[in-house]
Amino acid sequence: MSQRNGDAVVLHRVSRRYGSGDGAVSALDEVSLTFPRGSFTAVMGPSGSGKSTLLQCAAGLDRPTSGSVTVGGTELTGLGERRLTLLRRERVGFVFQAFNLLPALTAEQNVALPLRLAGRRVPRARIREALHQVGLGDRARHRPAELSGGQQQRVALARALITRPDVLFADEPTGALDSRTGHEVLTLLRGMADREGQTVVMVTHDPVAASRADRVVFLVDGRVHGELAGAGADAVAARMTGLEAVPC
Ligand SMILES: Nc1ncnc2c1ncn2[C@@H]1O[C@H](COP(=O)(O)OP(=O)(O)OP(=O)(O)O)[C@@H](O)[C@H]1O
Ligand SMILES: [Mg+2]
User: Fold this and answer.
1) pLDDT at position 1, please?
2) Which atom of ligand 1 is nearest to the CA of 19?
């Protein structure tokens, strides 16, 4: 298939099935999507529609049963474990609802971790700059337990971006935050797309969060069920209400 230079991630007819026989579940069914560089996309859909599976397959954390995934021009299908691990480490950032910081490490040590794991030099100024970018320049020596939820998620964001990845995936990054703190995290994501040209793909259940993205892709039963570009929260919410009524 054709790969335009301007695409950070391309999924081509990606399917992911779990199990076999009667108990088989089709979590993704021939999903084709393109995420242009510098774009901010939200993924929405009912619970169990395949949103997390989509992110995991696109990030090389899970392998599709069929179809292809291309990140920054490299096709993941067929990569061995070692090369896939390297690609994940260097070219993909991931943040989760649960911030997944290491509790024994300070904020700056958490942020430095991906570079350390990659055996790369860890310039202190770069770590400080990353923390500064997420508004935590004065919290470098704090451990996760000494930070609020929103601050912990911002450390997780700085950590995900320290390798300057081709794409940042976020699975319900504001799911554990109150609306004001969630808003701050969304503003950071929006700014990263606008100012740094960072490609962002975010799963969310919140129409207000989704409306901060350039477009919203809807999933139902493992299939793409349309998308909205530049939609407000009300339009996104109305579309979601419609989707939840789609018969299985
Ligand atoms: N490891 C697994 N083994 C078997 N089935 C799985 C596995 N992981 C996911 N599934 C199934 O695949 C489908 C999609 O799951 P997924 O976690 O991607 O949904 P989701 O849209 O992220 O849901 P939620 O909004 O609840 O997080 C579900 O039916 C789920 O039960
Ligand atoms: Mg999920």
Assistant:
1) 44
2) 4
Joined tokens for residue 37? 């560089």
Query: Which pLDDT does position 243 carry in this prediction?
Result: 86
The reported pLDDT for the residue numbered 5 is 65
pLDDT tens digits along 90-140: 899 999 989 899 999 999 999 999 999 888 888 999 999 999 989 999 999
Q: What is the pLDDT of residue 27?
A: 97
Q: Do 218 and 224 form a contact (C-beta atoms < 8 A)?
A: yes
Q: Ligand 1 test: best mutation among 20, 22, 31, 51, most atoms within 8 Å of CB?
A: 51
Where the chain has pLDDT below 70, the residues are 1-5, 246-248
Helix, strand, or coil (residue 92): strand
Binding site membership of 39 for ligand 1 (Cβ less than 6 Å): no
Q: How far is CA 197 from CA 5, 6, 38, 73, 88, in A?
A: 14, 11, 4, 17, 19
CA distance 138 to 156: 16
Distance (angstroms) between ligand 1 centre and the Cα of 15 equals 13
Atom of ligand 1 nearest to the CA of 28: 14
Residue whose tokens read 């207000």: 208
Pocket of ligand 1 contains residue 20 by CB under 6 Å: no
Q: 235 C-alpha vs ligand 2 centroid, how far in Å?
A: 22
For ligand 1, say whether the CB of 51 is within 6 Å of any of its atoms: yes
